[in-house]
Amino acid sequence: MGFQGRRWLFENVIVNAESGPALMVSDVTDVEIRRFTTHEPNPDAPVIEFERVKDALVQDCKAVEGTGTFLQLKGEKNEDIEMRLNRLSKARKALEGKGVKVESTYSAGL
Questions:
Q1: Domain map of the chain by residue range?
Q2: Tens digits of per-residue pLDDT, 36-77?
């Protein structure tokens, strides 16, 4: 599932992708992702992938057993990305990439 544009809100969403990331967000300004998870993670792909994303909040999300990377930032043009109160201890890596402010994130592998 992929999205582009401005002002997106994903709340209480479960996505089970057959391949690749469960959620791909590119060229987006102002996005909030709250209580997002997948029940069938692809260990070779992130659950969420950002590319050229500005002003984003990832909050109250959960990684399940078998999760590889939860959030991957592709490229160098992601700005003002914040993670809060996520339960990511079951992910091999909570985050891959640079430019994220992490507050009160319960996770392993940062």
A1: 2-104
A2: 999 999 999 999 999 999 999 999 999 999 999 999 999 889
